[in-house]
Amino acid sequence: MGENRCFLLVHPEISRTKYNFAGIIDNEPLELEFLWTVLQNAGFAPHIWDGQVETQSFAERLAELQPAFVYICGRTRQEGFMLEYCKAAKEQGAVTMLGGLHAQHNFRRLMQPYVDYIFTGFDPDAVRQTACGASPENLDGICWQAGGEWVTRAGKPYDIRRLPRADRTQFYAHTDRYRYLELSPCAHVRTAYCCPYQCSFCSRNRLNCGVYTARDIADVVDEIAEIQCDNIYIIDDDFLFDEKRIRTFIRLVRERGIKKRYVCYGRADFVASHAALMRELKEIGFYYILTGLEATDDAHLDRYNKKTDLAANAEAVRILNETGIHIMGMFIVDLDFTAKDFRAVAKWIRRHHVRNAAISIYTPEMSSPQFEEYRSRLITEDPAHWDYLHVVARPEHMSVKRYYMHYHLLVVRLFLRAWRQGVYDFLDYGFFIRSMLKNLFRFGG
Ligand code: SF4
């Protein structure tokens, strides 16, 4: 290892437009904090630059630190920023590395001359070994350049029990920023990785080579007890999966007298069939359950291979409302929607009293079988549009402009309803309503 041990870990900004979720949901960069621990233990000097919260620009931080290594992670919508920062880091002489969710599935898109390594797995130790000079030939889940060609070594499933505790220096320095809606600050905890279900629109089930891996739940409770934050966002793709594990979690949280508020993802069918368990989760502090309700008709649920139905969705909403846990119902507006379908979503949400609703435009994930299906209908190849707020493929029954109009009308309608109910009182409503109306007139009509 050379003298310069400075290692800059980067999470780019989500977007450079004002139409994003900054100030509403700002996620702790947990993946980078795992890397921080591993690198620090190996004698490196890690720093994090997180575009969500920084006041200093990336270029300024790069010039100030002169790092020997720069690792950048991100999602599809951040691809442009990932490559831009990578290029700048290479020009300054750093060894450049890309990883994270987008890289795992779309590494071929990132193969540029100024990128030295792309990590396609979840193992933070592969990053450490590479920085320590290990030959990539001896590692799994890595791409690198040799003789002007890219070489790819396939990833292997990672056992999440090998993860170290994340170093939360970055989180504690920005507790004024990392939040989930009104839960501020809000720390992230990962108890499992990948998802055992096979919903067709989702790429989470292909992470970690498609292998679900879970931590010992007692270790998770130990970690939660240690975190100096009252709000915990369990970022597993599906926390409500193993009933026995959840019961152990509840027992341990009670035994240790831990008093925090929790956010987690959970499927509607699990909630619908575990009413009593939901009451116990409420008692120990579960505040939001984020549920992929996806559709308001069984035909779309079947098409998505959701393995649940509308009756279960309605029952899940009823149980959570009755229990007093806030539901965040996540819906997809499909590209085959008619005007009637958009109205049906609004009606279903109103009729079932879904307090919080998030609407995504159907977006075929890059490198998925759906992407091939939609390829001939794509209207953009700009990865920044893979944010579920943009139409990326031609709608079936209307023009793109008309589709946006219906989408924005739905979003504005739901937002005004939430406003009347005081759901997002912590927000600057005026700013968001103006921003939505601007989009309505820009895209729709
Ligand atoms: S949508 Fe949810 S349940 Fe379905 S595969 Fe993705 S993470 Fe799993």
Question: Please, could you describe this protein's structure?
Answer:
By secondary structure, the protein is an alpha/beta fold. It has a domain at 6-153: Cobalamin-binding domain (Rossmann fold). The chain is 37% helix and 18% strand. It has 16 helices and 17 strands. It has helices at residues 30-41, 58-65, 79-91, 101-106, 124-131, 169-173, 217-226, 243-255, 268-272, 275-284, 298-303, 310-323, 339-351, 369-374, 400-420, 429-443; strands at residues 6-11, 25-26, 45-50, 69-73, 95-99, 117-119, 142-146, 149-153, 179-180, 187-189, 192-193, 213-214, 231-234, 261-265, 286-294, 326-333, 356-361. The strands form 4 sheets. It has a 7-stranded mixed β-sheet with strand order 3-1-4-5-6-7-8, with helices on both faces. Helix 8 links the parallel strand 13 and strand 14 (261-265). The longest helix is centred in the last third of the chain and has 21 residues, at 400-420. The protein is globular. The mean pLDDT is 94. The structure holds iron/sulfur cluster. The site of iron/sulfur cluster has 10 residues, from loops.
